[in-house]
Description:
The protein is 33% helix and 1% strand.
Amino acid sequence: MMHTRQTTPKPSHRLLRAFGLSLALSLGSAEYGAAAEPIKPLPVMIEVNEAKAELGRLLFHEPRLSKNDTISCATCHDLSAGGDDGQVVSTGIEGRTGLVNAPTVFNSAYNFKQFWDGRAHTLKEQVDGPLQSRIEMESIWPDVVTKLFQDKDYPRMFQQAYPNDSQIISRENIKDAIAEFQRSLITPNSRFDQWLRGNVGAINEQEKEGYALFKRYGCVSCHQGANVGGNMFQVFGVINDYFRKRGNITDADLGRFNVTGNEVDKHAFKVPSLRMAAHTAPYLHDGSAGTLRDAVDAMFEFQLGREAPDEDKEAIVAFIKTLAGEYRESNYRFDLGESPLSAEFQEDSRNGHLGQSPAPNGLQEISVVETVEGSPPADIAETISQNGKAPPLRTGRAAKPAAESEAAGRSGRSGRSGR
């Protein structure tokens, strides 16, 4: 587990005791329930610096970061949808198109690297990429700093967020504020997280079976931990050659190789998080999978090299849809809904520790331990290492209705740039 960073006064002892008690009641004990699973629940809250995050929120939606004042981070990462824009590749400045499918910005704080090829080590470092890219914002930092200095509000907000800096509006502070806001973009309390925390009715039988199959077929060898991915690189086409079948190989298809120059990294990409996959079609680095079912089919063909009954694949799709959590941009609070957290904890939130409307400049401060998971359990890894030869799983179940279309319920999107 990672240590949290304390930037403002800690919440009350009563709040922390309530939080600990609620987890104990819902999990039972540390060695049972969620603790035994390769997928972990996201924290309900995450600690951020309120002044920096609020400033970062404005900068995230600020088109003046681009050369011609038309493109913002939110253009490609729509927080009202899935944190992306639903395009195969994004549209940047002057209608230029991206090279790879832009991923969701939600839960990006849990990625061990940023971008598909992992060329940025941190969220702060990541900001340089789109801002300076010719096909995204095509800006330069001196111009950005000048524009923000000329604004009537930004100098004051930077002074409040960075009171000890002599150079208040700077490249480093802009990047730091945006990164702090991005850290706040978590989507807790998914139905699957509720199930992990002890709410046995949070997911239905098909979804439970989908999770069991997700583990048995070996999907969990790459998609595990709190972010259900985002913590390793993997070659795309490890069993069957995806790029030979698709053809028209581009430099972007080389993936991690473009960063390291190592032959073993050709066609290797950061494994994407599945947390918001229900809302972020199309899929894969090239946006070639239009639905979740298409993406699952591709994984079976090129990563697992196996056949599977349609009902198994539909159950896996149903499970993946349970991973999407909750986010409120308007006030940074998360709707706990039917969360198994104790009534005392939720009462604390309503009385001002968590749920009270935030101060004018920012977020409510909550301290929580962040979890980043590593490799899957040995028995799962063993299963995966043999998946190229293993026969399809047969469960003897009666056929079940196909999962609803991935397109159902998707809202309109705007353009996005490649990541």
